[in-house]
Write the structure tokens for this entry.
Amino acid sequence: MFGFLEENKIVTPNEYFALHHNKFFDVLSGIFYLSWVPVPIGLTIYFLYKNKKESMHLPLAFLLVNLIGFIVYYMYPAAPPWYVAKYGFEFLKQTPGSPAGLSRFDQALNINLFQSMYQKSSNVFAAMPSLHSAYPIVSLYFAVKKRLIWGSLLISLTALGIWFFAVYTSHHYILDVIGGVFCAGAGISIFEVFYANILSFKKYLDNSHGLR
């Protein structure tokens, strides 16, 4: 669906970037890929400072998105682009994890960060949906909801960077990124439905006590 012609051959964006990459983007890829950790944590700490009662909303929505993602992983196991490039379409159960294009970040900075992280991966066939692509959407939703203009702009930039570098580093196909966005939407929607029901139930109890 997302292939294009390169030297009279159809290639995916992942295949193109595997051949055409540069050191600047390699370093940026690692920075953006790591940003999913401090962004939601920082936002949660901010909400904790502003309103303790609502500070757990983002973590709870985050948890729901993760649960949905892991359910889909095991219902629909899918190989990432680096696996297809290395092993083709053969299913190899004991395949170790790989940092793929993120290894170039390690090489650029002469460290072993992503190599050590992805070697411990427990499930290689967990490309669809891309939870890395889902996470900034959750943070963005709550930042917009609380009208944090600068925070929303920064998180939007983070989201775009993560989506691009998920493909650039051969960790995900474009469809995986789209799946991650839908996964985030599903988790947020479920959270809002449950939260609205809890508020309605609480209001009902308060009214019942008032009548007594």
